Amino acid sequence: MITYDRLFIGGSWVEPSTPKLLDIASPHDQSVVGRAAQAQPADIDRAVAAARAAFEAGEWRLTPPAERIAVLRRFNALREENAEKIAHLISLENGSAGWFTRAGQPGLTRQANAYLKAAEEFAWEETLTPSDPASPVRSVVRREAVGVVAAVIPWNSPFSSATSKIIPALVAGNSVVLKVSPENSLSMGFLAELLEQLDLPEGVISVLPADRETSEYLVKHKEIDKIAFTGSTLAGRRIASIAGEQLKRVSLELGGKSAAIILPDADIEKAVAGVKFGSLLNNGESCIAQTRILAPRTRYEEVVSALKTLVESLKVGDPGDPDTFIGPMIRRDQQERVRNYIQLGIEEGARLVTGGPQIPEGLEKGNYVTPTVFADVDNSMRIAQEEIFGPVLVVIAYDDEDDAVRIANDSEYGLSGGVWSSDEEHALAVARRVRTGTITVNGASIAFDGPFGGFKASGIGREYGAVGLGTYTEYKTITV
């Protein structure tokens, strides 16, 4: 049993305002795997006050960038040393299959290294060449920390979401209050243990598990300068409205309903093998999952048949079993949400190729759903337009390339996507036409040096690399 009976506020473990601990239940069998204190508004006040005091005192903010970078490199090394434990904790509390949590660890290293390389090359201060050589005025442009950052993250990929915010925010010299989901109290408690070893100045970093009401209290707090949020589009809209009212800086990484376009010349076997990881990663509980599969009419049934074979071959079960590919949904309500969408797809008239709303046999104790494929789906159906956040794929037929692009763009979202073709340059040309923040060709992985984020209802702003680092700074121009 893992227990965190204190809260990590300002770099120290302190007594919570409420002593009651939350039971953390295993999504696999509902057994209690841990207990943890949860933050209340009084704890938020304490963390924000500490962050504000630290920022105004300036010890961390005024530390040279090279020294801040060195501290975050040490954090990254600590995380790498504990990768196996981190993977285990996330599987334990989230139900994410072990293959996924382990495979994600090298990605965290690449993500961090991209930020730190960008920070080394970042123009923290530069003198501009006057546009008029005769002008006696020169401009010095500085990039300075924005202030106190509220980083609010979801439960599905907690370490990735956390480090994508705290690394650039801290490197830029900010103070950070990281608000995490109650379900992730164990892995994020361990994250706090790693941060504690950095000996940051008092107040610079807090890690607080808390419910939605307390989260809103945080983002509304008058002493917060910037909100960095990852989560649902619905919650993002609410946060954007709060930020607008208070003129807070805000970046939002929100939902998706991404399309994988399989072009007529694609190798179907390779494309479907790519769908296994691009569309069903993390039990389907991923904002970047490519869950709309667009197939040419000339090869439609070939694609549907291959997807049926793939999905039926995947083992569903205990996330601790090395053979498991798809584990349980994180909570009962999420399980019911996905099952209800599957039932809705049947009622909308889509063809159920495999799966269905039934719970997999022998897994009734856990939050399991049966991986499902629908064919003969019209893009106007709710199962094609709404983010299901589970292992449910819809296959949509298209007539020609223009039709495929039209369908891919016919969505309120624009976060991710993919194109499959035997002609890489042709696939790249198609990818350029899809209105989405990130898109892969032939299953390429995300490159963390490039900006990541969404078009339309998938968000505002970008993460990763130099662009992501820049969102945690303000421009200051000094004329001399």
TrEMBL record:
Record carries keyword Heme: no
Active site: E253
Alphabetical UniProt keywords: Oxidoreductase
Catalyzed reactions per annotation: an aldehyde + NAD(+) + H2O = a carboxylate + NADH + 2 H(+)
The Aldehyde dehydrogenase domain, residue ranges: 13-478
Enzyme type, top EC level: oxidoreductase
Top-level taxon: Bacteria
Annotated protein name in UniProt: aldehyde dehydrogenase (NAD(+))
Organism: Streptomyces cynarae
